[in-house]
Amino acid sequence: MNEILTNIAAKSYRFVISGGGTGGHLFPAIAIANKLSQKFPGCGILFVGALGRMEMEKVPATGYPIIGLPIEGFQRKQIFNNINLPYKMLKSLIISGKILKTIKPQVVIGTGGYASFPLVYRASKMKIPSIIQEQNFFPGKSNMFLSKYVNKVCVIDEKLKAYFPENKIVVTGNPVRENLVDFISAKPSYYLDFDLKPGNFTLLVLGGSLGAKTINESILGCYESLLDNDIQMIWQTGKFYYQGITQKIHTTKESSLCIKPFIDQMEKAYAIADLVVCRAGAITLSELALLKKPAILIPSPNVAEDHQTKNALSLVDKKAAIMVTDNLARETLSATILNIFKDKSTLTELSSNIYKLANPDSTELIVNEVLKLIKV
Predict the structure, then answer these.
(1) d(CA 178, CA 181)
(2) Do domains 2-174+361-374 and 181-355 have the same CATH topology?
């Protein structure tokens, strides 16, 4: 750790970014880091995450250094597992203080989740300029608490002023993968990457990297009917479900079905998708909006504050997506897909309305707020 801190402390511009636990918190953080690197070539950027979480593997793969804190989230279902949480919080605050005192960053950026709490809170108490970014239409508890202390709160929608100090809010949207839109222009060639027929109606089914049980079981119960209606499919099962699902698949239309445990080139899958079935994570929704993709959203019921349902409803209210609840998906998903497939006007309406929610300049807007804090 000391060597990492020493190297970054020697840079003219220094930034610390914290957030993780899930891709929804991590991927915006990486997008912001990449944009800062463009604005300040050779700057020092340090990530701070939670030990044992995905960021400890994903961040080094992008070339950025990361330091892990022993912080953990509060476990609502197993209350006795929280007995060591105060000690881990205290230790994380101490480590965060050491990091900040050594690096003396110009700005600290938090992208949500418990991983960002100790660092951003410590920075605010040390009078270091700080920004938090909230991806969801309903904020997490960490960000709601931190909003009292930070300089700016970057949000997806102005309605979040109900939860944050209004004078600190900046509507920026959510950062998404760079060059995502560029893949659309080469759409015809991507069908071959999935062994599918160019131009045929394509359904993209996503359940995240690990998989979503409800989505997988719902599609398993109706895939034959979908294929019989000339719908070809890219189906990301997640690594925990892939083997079991492939053993249960029996069809004579293998050429219309591409099943993968994980899609490495999601940009290509998005490009050829005519309809997407997925959970309602904030970053996924921002990507769908930018790409004008009609979607059926099945919010996960297993997330804090049920924020995926709130994310989905915010789109449903604007006629920008269709929502199917998790408990009804097995019975109703097939009919919902077929109804949309047969009604081209609905596809067009969903595509048009979701694009109205897109903000292609979100990363740039967030970094502009960083620049204001260091008066560049």
Answers:
(1) 8
(2) yes
- The CATH architecture annotation of domain 2-174+361-374 reads 3-Layer(aba) Sandwich (3.40)
Distance CA 168, CA 166 (A): 5
Whole-model pTM: value is 0.88
Amino acid at 31: A
Dihedral (Cα; 185, 283, 256, 272), 10-degree rounding = -10
**What stretches of 17-84 show up as alpha helix (H) in DSSP?**
23-39, 55-61
Average pLDDT across each block of 10 residues of the chain; the chain has 376 residues. List them in order: 91 93 83 96 96 90 95 67 81 96 97 90 97 92 93 93 94 86 74 93 84 91 96 94 92 91 90 96 93 96 85 96 97 97 96 94 95 84
Q: How many CB atoms lie within 10 A of CB 11?
A: 16
Show me where the domains of the chain are located: 2-174+361-374, 181-355
* Contact present, 19 and 26 (Cβ < 8 Å): yes
| Overall fold of domain 181-355 | Rossmann fold (3.40.50)
Count CB neighbours of 164 within 10 A: 21
